[in-house]
Design a protein that fits this description.
It is built from 24 helices and 30 strands. It is an alpha/beta fold and 768 residues long. The structure holds ligand MGD (2 copies), iron/sulfur cluster and molybdenum atom (MO).
Amino acid sequence: MQNTATPTHCPYCALQCGMNLTPTPDGTVEVSERADFPVNRGALCGKGRTAPAVLARNVRLTSPLVRDAGGTLVPASWDEALDRIAAELSRTRAEHGPDAVGVFGGGGLTNEKAYTLGKFARVVLGTSQIDYNGRFCMSSAAAAGIKAFGLDRGLPFPLEDIPKSGCVILVGSNLAETMPPSLRFFTELKENGGTLIVIDPRRTRTAEQADLHLAPRPGTDLALALGLLHLVIAEGRVDEEYVRERTAGWEDARAAAMAHWPEYVERITGVSVPQLRETVRLFCEPESAMVLTARGPEQQSKGTDTVGAWINLCLATGRPGRPLSGYGCLTGQGNGQGGREHGQKADQLPGYRKLDDPAARRHVAEVWGVDPDSLPGPGRSAYELLDALGTDIRSLLLMASNPVVSAPRAAHIEERIKSLDFLAVCDVVLSETAALADVVLPVTQWAEETGTTTNLEGRVLLRRRAVTPPEGVRSDLEVMHELAARLGVEKGFPTDPEEVFEELRRASAGGPADYSGITYRRLAEENGVFWPCPSPAEAGGPGEGARPDGQLEVVDMGEDALLDAPLPDDPARETPTAHPGTPRLFLDRFATPDGRARFVPVSHRATAEEPDDEYPVLLTTGRVVAQYQSGAQTRRVAELNAAAPGPFVEIHPRLAARLGVAEGDPVAVVSRRGRAVAPARITNAIRPDTVFMPFHWPGEGRANTLTNPALDPTSRMPEFKACAVRLEAVAREAVAEESIAEETVAEETAVRETVERETVEREAVSAR
Ligand SMILES: Nc1nc2c(c(=O)[nH]1)N[C@H]1C(S)=C(S)[C@@H](COP(=O)(O)OP(=O)(O)OC[C@H]3O[C@@H](n4cnc5c(=O)[nH]c(N)nc54)[C@H](O)[C@@H]3O)O[C@H]1N2
Ligand SMILES: Nc1nc2c(c(=O)[nH]1)N[C@H]1C(S)=C(S)[C@@H](COP(=O)(O)OP(=O)(O)OC[C@H]3O[C@@H](n4cnc5c(=O)[nH]c(N)nc54)[C@H](O)[C@@H]3O)O[C@H]1N2
Ligand code: SF4
Ligand SMILES: [Mo]
């Protein structure tokens, strides 16, 4: 065991904050500040600071579990558990065909794991039925980015550009709670004289920082963006030269925007015409400006068009590909970016290649040593896959997701999961989904294993092993290696992450997300490298990692043009010809065949479920600072639980008065999918026609019991951010004592405030 500090990164969100870890003699792990990483410069939120708590034996799994004849999960040996999984998956395949076996992955998996999982599904299981939780996260922004720019990398520039921009519009991001250390970039923006505009139906802690806060009705961001573009045109603020030289499709997009009069948009969104005009002025006047979207506008059944409309606004005003300007998506999960590039998506091969592209299939099949025709075609999207469990899909291997809590229409999905012939789950804890499994495999965690992640900026990072895992756990890579061997594939599933990465480099070479010029050594020396980073061979010189024939395959992207100015004398780089990586994209051309960005003609449409007499209120959902996602990890950390012990419903005082509900009173929220109960949190910070619930908890307060699985036609993203509900006051005595107590709410608020204060203080300290 090392006793010195190991520099590594946080297990949770897409900032991938740098931290140092030191094992202590008493068996715990100490987190200390790592100031050299530019994204967080030492600052951490409460989740990152307390992450080692989940390494403790008392909260995690340390033995495989197998369901016995009586239906109870009991400890078992690794061989017994792995044999059982291999036997069940083989049986399903023999009885129902390969597509009856499903695989579900996660954006928390390292690049090496995500890559191996995709390969495992296609090569070992031969199934097309693989997708992952990132479909629920940023798939709409990804689809819109590919349409417009020919490439999806969440942020096309480093976070460090934000403070130097003239204006930033944050659409549906509550980053003060979801990425606290990043708030610094926005406060610096304001200090530098730039403007921050926040668009959120709630006056969040992020919105409180804004120079201008617009609070539209949930699900109306598309109309809002169209209204802004209408004003840009009407006020003569279009950058005609840019539109002519760098874009295509303007006329149709222009016509669509002209149909969205400001007064019409005001009626749809609830944002006043003067506010629309002010937004346009603040966005257009400075030389540089950005739009950043997050889950608010994206998790809608029209998320792809909505992001498209925001990109149109950026293109019309000449922003993308210009310094300190452009459009970006704030990706969410720890490896939300890399996890969507290397093959765990239903339609995808490594390097962000398309599964239905014959050249891509040939390239990857060659790296994998298989016949291209043996690779299955595209499969179902995440919700559709989960919805097919127990019918078309009979057995499921699930790695790094907890859909019982996080999937839309969760009660239905829970039923689908229970109806499977066989479920195997790899996790670090006994999540609500793992608790339903036939076999649970306990795996190593971030601090116990090495691997790469790609943060929201497209910066590939090296997470290093800092502590020795406890007896009884194995890594996800070991699990796949063992299962592949049992299913007859002895080779091609290495357990050493660097060996996997070397193969990933070759598989990604020449693809849109080209990692072939990146090595573990470079990542260690350079503190991360931005993709695309072709190997010297790809860039025109000799080097390992290129295709054997030295050919570039997907040249759509115009690599040369994507490069930043090279840094020829950077001593950190391995060889003088090494590619420097690409912090800023699109400076000279976009990644489309003709180098031009595409406008998309889009028009407003309603949410899938508009309020009516029976369900008159809109429910939107999201996050709180102290819990992460389904809560599987953070609900096991005492300090975080104290700060955010349970679900709640944010209600405007007027709506609360109408219901006769006081602060802390239990409220039932009822949708066409089901009913959830949680205490009321009465606040002026939300629109009176809208209520908000965080989705971190299972049980009676599970927000996803209510949500609507209406899917975006392009991205297949469910509509997490808007569904119709009605509210009912619930008599206190009707509610289980432990779930709702006024004191808990008061206590929670006090502790939450302490945690927040601490976070801010820590940030202040490390900013100095
Ligand atoms: N503490 C914490 N941090 C996290 C996570 C976590 O679970 N907890 N998860 C990580 C992940 S995976 C992700 S994806 C990110 C998510 O990060 P964010 O996108 O910041 O998180 P959300 O809370 O889902 O949504 C952001 C805001 O959208 C608003 N919103 C709701 N409906 C609409 C709408 O129709 N339009 C607009 N414009 N806004 C709307 C909500 O009020 C909310 O304040 O956070 C990452 N960081
Ligand atoms: N209502 C509503 N629902 C939502 C959202 C919303 O805004 N509103 N947001 C959606 C979004 S953006 C997301 S990203 C999803 C996320 O929801 P989930 O997919 O459920 O994500 P997590 O809770 O992070 O689940 C990750 C699981 O993997 C485990 N794990 C962590 N690391 C590893 C590892 O390396 N290997 C393995 N095998 N397991 C690991 C964790 O312990 C945990 O049980 O939720 C979606 N659901
Ligand atoms: S913001 Fe918090 S959760 Fe996200 S990476 Fe940083 S410390 Fe981890
Ligand atoms: Mo996410």
